[in-house]
Design a protein that fits this description.
Helix content: 55-70%
Number of strands: 6
Radius of gyration: 22 Å
Distance between the termini: 51 Å
Shape: elongated
Mean pLDDT: 87
Number of helices: 4
Structural class: alpha+beta
Length: 185
C-alpha cells in the first residue's frame, strides 16, 4: 500500500491553519471576546479543567467579560486561574460572578501581542513544514518500493511543494491580519 496520501497531507496542513486561527482568536485586541479565556485552565476537584467546563463566559459589554461560575466553591480558583493566565486581566469578584474589565492596550503591550502572534504563526509554519517533510519521505519510500518511478515522484513532490506554499501563504495572511488588528493600523 502507498504511504503517500495527498488528502491526508492537505488535512494535516489545514489543521495547522485552523490551530493558528484558534490561537490568534485568543489574543486580546482591546475588545471583549469570549475566546480570550479559552486557554485558561482551572484547578478544581483535583484536576485541571478548561474554564468553559466550570463557568459560563459572556461579553455583556464591548469592554467587559462576565464569568458566571457554576459552583460557588470554585469562584476563588477561577479567579486565581484568570489572574495567573498572563492575559493582563484583573477579575472583580461579584459573588458567584466574576467581572473582567478589558483595559486599553498600551503600545508596549500591543507590540508584545504582535510578537506573540508571529510566534504562533512561526510554530504553525514549522508544523506545515513537518507535514511536507513527512510527505516527501513517504514519496521516496513509495519510489523505493517500486510503486511508481522517479518522474511520478518528482511530479508528486511538486504538488506537495505547491500545497505547502499555499498553506504557508494562508498562515501568513491570517497572522498579518491579526497583527494589523492588534496594532490598530
Amino acid at each position: 500500500m502507498a504511504a503517500y496520501d495527498k488528502s491526508d497531507l492537505e488535512r494535516r496542513m489545514q489543521g495547522a491553519v485552523e490551530s493558528l486561527k484558534h490561537d490568534l482568536n485568543g489574543l486580546r485586541t482591546g475588545r471583549a471576546s469570549t475566546a480570550l479565556l479559552d486557554p485558561v485552565t482551572v484547578e478544581v476537584y483535583g484536576s485541571h479543567m478548561p474554564l468553559n467546563q466550570v463557568a459560563t463566559v459572556s461579553a455583556p459589554e464591548p469592554r467587559m467579560l462576565s464569568v458566571q461560575v457554576w459552583d460557588k466553591s470554585n469562584v476563588s480558583s477561577v479567579e486565581k486561574a484568570i489572574r495567573s493566565a498572563g492575559l493582563g486581566l484583573n477579575p472583580i469578584n461579584d459573588g458567584q460572578t466574576l467581572r473582567l474589565p478589558i483595559p486599553d492596550l498600551t503600545e508596549e503591550r500591543r507590540k508584545e501581542l504582535a510578537k506573540l502572534a508571529n510566534k504562533y504563526a512561526e510554530s504553525a509554519r514549522i508544523a506545515v513544514r513537518n507535514v511536507r517533510r513527512d510527505g516527501m519521505d513517504s514519496l521516496k519510500t513509495d519510489e523505493k518500493k517500486g510503486l511508481f518511478g522517479e518522474d511520478e515522484r518528482k511530479r508528486h513532490e511538486t504538488e506537495v511543494q505547491k500545497l505547502t506554499d499555499a498553506t504557508i501563504a494562508d498562515l501568513d495572511a491570517a497572522a498579518a491580519a491579526k497583527e494589523k488588528e492588534i496594532l490598530g493600523k
